[in-house]
Amino acid sequence: MSDRPFAQPDFEREARWGLPEVVLGIGKTAAQIAEIVGRLRDANSGPVLVTKTTQSAYDAVLAVAPEAEFFVDAKLIRLPRPPVVSAGTIGVLAAGTADLPVAEEAALTAEAAGASVERIYDVGVAGLHRLLDRMDRIRLCEALVVVAGMEGALPTVVGGLTGLPIVAVPTSVGYGTSLGGVAALLGMLNSCTPQVVAVNIDNGFGAGFFAALITRKLA
Amino acid sequence: MSDRPFAQPDFEREARWGLPEVVLGIGKTAAQIAEIVGRLRDANSGPVLVTKTTQSAYDAVLAVAPEAEFFVDAKLIRLPRPPVVSAGTIGVLAAGTADLPVAEEAALTAEAAGASVERIYDVGVAGLHRLLDRMDRIRLCEALVVVAGMEGALPTVVGGLTGLPIVAVPTSVGYGTSLGGVAALLGMLNSCTPQVVAVNIDNGFGAGFFAALITRKLA
Amino acid sequence: MSDRPFAQPDFEREARWGLPEVVLGIGKTAAQIAEIVGRLRDANSGPVLVTKTTQSAYDAVLAVAPEAEFFVDAKLIRLPRPPVVSAGTIGVLAAGTADLPVAEEAALTAEAAGASVERIYDVGVAGLHRLLDRMDRIRLCEALVVVAGMEGALPTVVGGLTGLPIVAVPTSVGYGTSLGGVAALLGMLNSCTPQVVAVNIDNGFGAGFFAALITRKLA
Amino acid sequence: MSDRPFAQPDFEREARWGLPEVVLGIGKTAAQIAEIVGRLRDANSGPVLVTKTTQSAYDAVLAVAPEAEFFVDAKLIRLPRPPVVSAGTIGVLAAGTADLPVAEEAALTAEAAGASVERIYDVGVAGLHRLLDRMDRIRLCEALVVVAGMEGALPTVVGGLTGLPIVAVPTSVGYGTSLGGVAALLGMLNSCTPQVVAVNIDNGFGAGFFAALITRKLA
Amino acid sequence: MSDRPFAQPDFEREARWGLPEVVLGIGKTAAQIAEIVGRLRDANSGPVLVTKTTQSAYDAVLAVAPEAEFFVDAKLIRLPRPPVVSAGTIGVLAAGTADLPVAEEAALTAEAAGASVERIYDVGVAGLHRLLDRMDRIRLCEALVVVAGMEGALPTVVGGLTGLPIVAVPTSVGYGTSLGGVAALLGMLNSCTPQVVAVNIDNGFGAGFFAALITRKLA
Amino acid sequence: MSDRPFAQPDFEREARWGLPEVVLGIGKTAAQIAEIVGRLRDANSGPVLVTKTTQSAYDAVLAVAPEAEFFVDAKLIRLPRPPVVSAGTIGVLAAGTADLPVAEEAALTAEAAGASVERIYDVGVAGLHRLLDRMDRIRLCEALVVVAGMEGALPTVVGGLTGLPIVAVPTSVGYGTSLGGVAALLGMLNSCTPQVVAVNIDNGFGAGFFAALITRKLA
Amino acid sequence: MSDRPFAQPDFEREARWGLPEVVLGIGKTAAQIAEIVGRLRDANSGPVLVTKTTQSAYDAVLAVAPEAEFFVDAKLIRLPRPPVVSAGTIGVLAAGTADLPVAEEAALTAEAAGASVERIYDVGVAGLHRLLDRMDRIRLCEALVVVAGMEGALPTVVGGLTGLPIVAVPTSVGYGTSLGGVAALLGMLNSCTPQVVAVNIDNGFGAGFFAALITRKLA
Amino acid sequence: MSDRPFAQPDFEREARWGLPEVVLGIGKTAAQIAEIVGRLRDANSGPVLVTKTTQSAYDAVLAVAPEAEFFVDAKLIRLPRPPVVSAGTIGVLAAGTADLPVAEEAALTAEAAGASVERIYDVGVAGLHRLLDRMDRIRLCEALVVVAGMEGALPTVVGGLTGLPIVAVPTSVGYGTSLGGVAALLGMLNSCTPQVVAVNIDNGFGAGFFAALITRKLA
């Protein structure tokens, strides 16, 4: 290992998680990402994902994994392989158009972790009827990922309308006192309904993974 | 004035505001409060209010103004005199039981400033049907004061159901990351609906006054 | 809706607000903005606005709405159509030259919501006589939007000189401990005069809309 | 309802949550708590809980519900009635002795929501062998609640040793830059393992409820 | 020195500052304060001051310095001796009644440092005429200390009306987003007029000393 | 004024301050800056300054004021005209090389306000002997401006070595927990020596002006 | 262990650290502290310490360990037993009288961990000569613990005068913007000299332990 | 010195530190850096380092010191000369690939200060076995530098497995609530193990220097 000490991917994660180690693109060079992807591909059988990444990293990944796909909006690279576990149906809700990149990161991760995903977008509470009109589809899910920026009220409102577990994802969408997503996060952590748990700002990956995990089906 | 330099009450406010200067109890001694109340009573004709005050201040006020009332929950002293202006109907909504002191401060202030007040309490969004059941009464108001702690989502949700102007009051109710009301305030400032403006945490007085002001009727 | 799931504009807002849904440009692609504008134009009759947007979004909007105007300073796109409601006269005050983009966002929004706007700019309190010289024009308004960065003292000072309702807008103008507008916001929330309510930093849209709303005239 | 407007308990929650509405003791008087408990007892069949409460509230509750129990350490009142739903086995881990009140709040809530609870206390990472020695018991659980103050590293470390879903609860234990639990919360939100979701500081109730919810068994 | 290692008062300060070392009462026991006062009295000739102190410290000081005076409102103990230097006339302005303790700390310190003090209290900007009526007295001063809590606008407004140097003192008066005086401090640091410098929250001592220092007269 | 409402420069400031209004470059376009400079030049006789500005603003200013100078390091434009008042000798100290732009802004402002300036640079406390070697020059000044980033200890140390009034300027130099200068500012506000007052982060202009003001000589 | 699950003291620490596990008094009951002390006494041979504790905990400890000492100022209980390792000479410096409790916590811990301690107190930088007079004693140490509140400049200044490793301890001494010690901590983290590392606010224990550790002598 | 007043390098540091003054690249121009490097090279005999620097600064340095090396990942320029002191073996651990630049800054600094460095990278706690596998190499070191972003748990975990002194370096790696490294820093300051001290975010230089200093060997 001494000749490339910068990374020792954790090949045991696929066994522990039902998903290979996922590469966070932030702070890594394109070359580093490509090398890690190549090694993860060889050591695992499930879909390999890179999150919060760029076109130039994708170009480097293509050189070692020509089958790689790039989801521009979600800023996510995927090596399309079948999930190694099976999970339930996850509803991924997004409050506004600007929340879509994070929502897609969650949805694609949940699919890679074996879930079926129902996408329910642009249901912010400023027009509450849009959400109420979708409650039938929402109630068919086993768990929800709810993505919202600004005041982050959507998970709380959804929690007032259903009993499902909700993984809330604050986004950095907004300006001024949105404080890069902190306002939305605080709204979610202080939610007056206990079905709501939170992940880090913009962490669609974590939310999608967790939602799949809690609906995982035994083989 | 040199013998009591600590306060020169602003007797012009009744003319400018339609309400005598209101005394903030914080940081003043009982004796100071009593003296200021006495002087405001003499110089004005409308109801005199002391906010965020205590039983001991009330005792001191009684010595100079035996007609004074004390609203324990609202921590508010009132000299009961008829308002000098007339305003519209204000709905005061509170999310939870713990928000009542601030809601009552708002309601009593709005009444002193000439408004009629409709109290609509315990309509937090964790049980959304409670709010939906009250929408008929809410829609009859001309302006709303919406009081909420924790995640502060109630003003946003109300704004998704009606077109009325909403003065949102964050409360310091909560714990942990409620940060003494900052979480609720941020939720209100980042509300995705533009009918919502905010006042300081626990500032029921300001919200009640402002709501009365924007519905003031010409004589 | 499944073929373009990213946005479901809220066509009921024009009825509820007297103004079609306003598009926040932040976090949306030019193509997304253009499509939403097109759909809002078809479903509403009032002026359609895009705030905090860019030249490239304007170029995309022009393709679907050739009549669109772009106000560069205000970073605002407008489809020029008559307001569907009528409101009163709003004074829009700005403390300094650097506050003008936000002040113009407020003024243009208030006009789109049916108000007449009196623009009163560069009246910061460092030269108090400039403000005092304008008080006659200010007192003719029915409500005020007061825009200020740095220490945000202007709304408080104006509140000491008039009894009008004031919607204060902190701007992100300043440096160092202005903290991107947080200093000005705190100044406004802690104003010692209760005529002052606040909106989010740089939220000229919200302030202009709210000021128009509280002066709306019945048909 | 007009004669006691301060609270309208949400009786639908038992159906939606599998647990009656839980009363947060903060900000409510003893008399208010006792009245709400009485009404919840009549309208529901499951265990009624009051969290973050005091001896004086317990005294008041005893007058209306003599069967009530008070868990002093957990600051929790319980009306001992069988759960109305059935859930799986939850491991509740606590890093240090000072974290026990919150851990017990989580454990008692999970039990009220139908779960079996495995208590695994004083396994902070400063003596890692204490945790490693307990991993066998931990791996038998279906979900974990991990309670920690100070640096909040325990959920991350547990996540490096097992694939179970982890609901992390930061506590306000610590001093100085623990910032009342914010340091631990940030540690959990930034956890490098995606099995970890977080709830508000000291929110044992939310964590215990959520863990039970995701392991709920169909009747 | 080894028998009382806890303090080695700095006897050179009287020569450097024109005022003996001033004892900050916070964090010291009554016995420690009394001993330090006694040693400062012996080693210096000017007035000895203890700030932010208590009745019990005063009792202890009386035992070693029977001539000591206690200013209850200002929380300040003084050994009344003539100043060793001579300074100019300082105006000390306070916005509200609750700001008086800090204003008095500033005034008493400035007097001990040789200045004459003009006290101008309760001139908050919510009633601007009160300030305008006092401008003649203010303009006769050589430097100003301006004390204000809440939004902290007073120094900026005064700076718009005069060219004098202003030492602004934020106070911890207020609630909610006053953040214990941080809002007022930020308002002062971001003042749009450059005559304003700031000291720490509630630091009347520092402001009074500095104002005297910059008006010091040569013997 | 209606044809160019964006700015109404305050021509009275030269009389009040002894310096024409100084233009803050941030948030203004080059064209706006040039126009304001032109108008200030016509209405005042002293040096006109633009701070925190750019080469492109300088280019625009040159078109209306060919005599304008640009100090690249200080980011300051100056119209070189003799000061209209006379002030004393100011020492401007800077802790490190990276603090020089702010120090130069202070020095050039003080000179424009009539002061003589002694520049004493690179005397950070990590090598205390460098400062001690300069104390003779420092003690000849009447007031000091002390500029420092990082931990901001220099003003406190200088205050331990001399009795001069010190205007401390925190700079945004540093990284990580320097928090853009907040660490240095807090260090200065909490200085254990009362000769130190503070201005906003990077506000060399304010510090230089204030130091000149307090040493102003009567004509 | 199941009969007292609240604590499982880490008896391996004495071997790993050269000091038994130290009990943090915060958040533990007197009974819990006494029990833990008793068990640590039995399982270890070195001095047992309880930090940040109270008289009532001491009373409880005396019942199980009559030899226990209580250092009131340091809020520290000690079972006086000889250290099991030997370390070098540590200088413990404190800036002011109010910093002594934390300094004593550091000194007593270092002694328990085998070090000799030189106490050098009240050497704050406001009177720099007091520090310079002690430099000879300071230079004889092998490592320093430097304790300071307020602006926290002392470690930086000491680092400018010696090449010794410095463990800086911010204290919560101060008021206003000292922010409970955060100002001092930031000053230490941003120190311009690299000999300085920091521990948590008021963490005398950690600093004393670390200083002893880095000077430990081989047997 | 008057002809180049911007910098007076501290040539005494090599004697005091065993390392010449190290140049922080931030906030200095390439020309300034080159000049300072040239002067340091002439006045010292040990390795000269520039940290947090750029290619353009390196180009300028090459003109005066052609032997200079540039470590792109570490953003560090080095004049390769033998250390003037000798130190022990330092283990530099990094949690993830993105932490490598800071880890390399620490390693190169420690080497310049005379230490031998053992690099142990990519041992984040999400895959704990990777760390456990390396403990044998870690235990051979005399002191550790542990570099981690995100939740910053690695130093605490390492401290639970060894008794070595640990200098923890938080990195700005992460997103959302990592807050630019503040989350990791807080995790380290609140570490439940007392072997851990912290330096500023991304301050690899300080950590590497300090670790070398505490293992320095006498000649």
Provide the gyration radius of chain A in Å.
18 Å
Structural class by helix and strand composition of chain A: alpha/beta
In what range is the share of β-strand residues of chain A? 15-25%
Which descriptor suits the 3D outline of chain A?
globular
Spans of chain A with pLDDT under 50 lasting ≥5 residues?
1-5
- List the total number of helices of chain A: 9
Q: What is the quaternary state of this protein? A: homooctamer
- N-to-C SSE string of chain A, H for helix and E for strand: HEHEHEEEHEHHEHEHEH
In what order do the strands lie side by side in the largest sheet of chain A? 6-5-7-8-9
The chain pair with the largest interface is: A-B, 32 and 32 residues
The end-to-end span of chain A amounts to: 36 Å
Q: How many DSSP-defined strands of chain A?
A: 9
What would the average pLDDT of chain A be, to the nearest integer?
A: 92
The largest sheet of chain A, given as strand count, sense and whether it forms a barrel, is: 5 strands, parallel
Q: What is the helix content of chain A?
A: 25-40%
